[in-house]
């Protein structure tokens, strides 16, 4: 666990991103396999029909093996796409082996926008979220764009009424820190899974 009591949000991002980027390919592949095995036995995944996931970027935990396993089990997967008209928001588009991909303004691969491939957020069973760091309370630190905080804000406000989509954060084990300085827009998430641990916060 990284000590973070005296670090700012940006300093935490810098430290953890450096650690992620230093991982070798063998380690990434091993962690990817552990993650896939863990997620495929998760009760929420076992009953899911449609999930949102993301493609690995910036040393993030590799999701490829899990995505392909979902395809093999007929679980529909959806990827985040930057909303073309609503700044700072995401759409989720169906992702399969024939999806046409393109790079967004952050140079991250996403499906080419097609309104026929968009699934409303409330129809997703699970939304797997990337993160830079998390702490023992479930506080999640992202890259700073606020995309997932905005995406999850409605779920968070109504979580007593609905479980969909259920958010699960994915991270390397070393991305856990002691404390993340919180901001009013931060949305805590109920569960974070690493290759070796499962954390439930509420």
Task: Characterise this structure.
It is a single chain. A hairpin with a 5-residue loop joins strand 7 and strand 8. This protein has 202 residues and is α/β, with parallel strands linked by helices. The two termini are 21 Å apart. A 7-stranded mixed sheet has the order 3-2-1-6-9-10-11, with helices on both faces. It has helices at 9-21, 25-40, 43-46, 64-72, 147-157; strands at 50-52, 76-82, 90-95, 101-103, 109-111, 126-129, 133-134, 140-141, 166-170, 191-193, 198-200. The protein is globular, with a radius of gyration of 16 Å.
What topology does this entry show?
Blueprint: H1 9-21, H2 25-40, H3 43-46, E1 50-52, H4 64-72, E2 76-82, E3 90-95, E4 101-103, E5 109-111, E6 126-129, E7 133-134, E8 140-141, H5 147-157, E9 166-170, E10 191-193, E11 198-200
Helix pairs in contact: 2-4
- The biggest beta sheet, please? 7 strands, mixed
The number of E-state strands comes to: 11
Helicity level, as a percent range? Answer: 25-40%
Number of DSSP helical runs: 5
CATH fold name: Rossmann fold
Overall radius of gyration: 16 Å
Global structural class: alpha/beta
**Global shape:** globular
Organism: Thalassotalea castellviae
Cofactor: Mg(2+)
Keywords: ATP-binding, Ligase, Magnesium, Metal-binding, Nucleotide-binding
GO molecular function: 5-formyltetrahydrofolate cyclo-ligase activity
